[in-house]
Amino acid sequence: MPNVHVDIFIPCFVDQLYPTTALNMVKVLERVGVQVNYNAEQTCCGQPAYNAGHHPESRAVAEKFLNDFAAPAAPTGQNAPLRYIVSPSASCVGMVRNSYTELFADRPQQAACRGVQGRTYELTEFLVDVLGITAIPGAQLAGKYTYHDSCAALRECGIRAAPRQLLDGVAGLERLEMAETTTCCGFGGTFAVKFEAISVAMAQQKVEYALATGADFIVSTDVSCLMHLEAYIKKEKLPLKCLHVADVLASGW
Question: Is the pTM of this model over 0.85?
Fold first, then answer.
């Protein structure tokens, strides 16, 4: 797909804590023939400040995001290819698609905001819904997985089928759906800090549902959820491993 161009957005926590996931996303995109571009000036989408109620500060960060991901001008006499914005985080994609509408309502950046929103996708929905790809060639991982629908993916972005389709196309991998798969894992950003006991109890419940399936892996579109669940799993020394969908799709080749 030589004419498909993507600007990748790597969220703060992926950049700092899970850089391999970012590299695996690039690996997968290049595997299917996408031209990948990376703007090293990019920072945060503004979600932490927004969720904490600091909207003016969040707007300043979000304005930088709009500038960093503005569509490049086409060379004279040519049509510029559509540059999609793809991220390995449904949470950040949800922030851009939904919360930016409020942040830039009736402001000079409103038109630019809409343009960016229309080009922004989470990795799995981009592969399935935009490119029509439901399996990554060569992807293989032996074991059984259960899928966690993150709140952002499911409720903010409407993503449910795409990650399962791609994961089901991984050779050697079997899906076992857990009970209450759409229930929150308890992370919720600052919620995990402000309401620690409730947050941990929710993680415990989610992990128990996953264990009951007999799965080897919990897979999701959001490393924030996986980080939260993994902390509980490691503390309790449980036989489960958390993997981002990009890490699974990049396995075996």
Answer: yes
